[in-house]
Automatic annotation (TrEMBL):
Transmembrane segments: none annotated. Keywords: TPR repeat. The keyword DNA damage does not apply. It comes from Arthrobacter silviterrae. It holds the Pfam family DUF4192. This is DUF4192 domain-containing protein. TPR repeats lie at residues 277-310. The keyword Nucleotidyltransferase does not apply. InterPro entries: DUF4192 (IPR025447), TPR-like_helical_dom_sf (IPR011990), TPR_rpt (IPR019734). It comes from the Bacteria.
Amino acid sequence: MEKLSIKTPDDFIALMGHSLGFWPHESLVCILLDGRRIGASLRVNLPTPATDTTRYTEQLMHYITTDHQATGVVFGIFTHTPWAPGDPRPHQDMLDEFAGRLGAEGITVRDGWLVGETTFTNYLHMNTRHPVQHPLDGITASQLNAELVFRGSSIEPSPGFRIPVTATADLSQKVLRNCYRIEAMNPHDATEQARTLWARMLDGGADPTDDEAAELIAYLKFITVRDRLIADIPGIEDSMRDLLLGQTTQSPHWQRVDRATDVLFHLYMRADGPDTAPVLTSLGVIQWWEGHGSKAHQCFQKALEADPDYRLAQLTDHLVRDGILADWATSRNNAYQPPHTRGPEIGGLGMA
């Protein structure tokens, strides 16, 4: 397998952005290591003065110790709060407790950085006489960043989707006619017809026609059909409950999941009003499976703006806000990997 090497702090900080898909703000980002190989990435909001740091640390440890092969952690504190040489290290009490808990589990803090608006500083060396502040611009010129950009990766300025405000086509009458047709059908037959159309969309490469889009939007408005279609997205056989909760032992077919995201965005662009709620909620579930809590929350909130009583959006958003991750997102073998990282192994740590 081709290997991409990390040789400088710039490479590592660039990897944090590429792994998340966006540049984090007021965040603690951890990357797990297994010897010299890169594992999963984790992002959480930085604690506030009112945060219970013990509970905060316990939650971090819960996420990290799900990877039983992790032997090390590197971290980045991304914040706009200014820091100058001689100032106390930000969040030092929390990070000291965190490092101690990691050590008790046999996991070493290998390195860490404070990443500001224009510079970054090695967090572990901030108490030395002359801590070095490096320009953040150097990250864009790093070798790893250039390679990942070449492979199609990008770092967005924020974690949110670029979700348009209005539909590009008014299919509401077609959707309504399909709803009447579905209501008149035997529920089993309606579900099977929906699954056949859905599978054709996910296994193909063409965008749905307006007629197909209207039919799929209508199917998603029926709860039992919607749940079955969401459970079909990963392309594996298991109980519908375990599929919806992202807790199967078998890994999803993530390329098919990516395709479902594209199709759902296409449907969203052709839905309007309350019809958008099931589409946005389905998108949010996918983001939750992938471990993208901020994007999932945005989808659920937009779904609830369209339909304040939409139950699945309410329930799943509670999971996100409580910091509960899908099992897939915490599994080394099953976790989502962006397309540009599915080929090469990232390792070969060469930092001093």
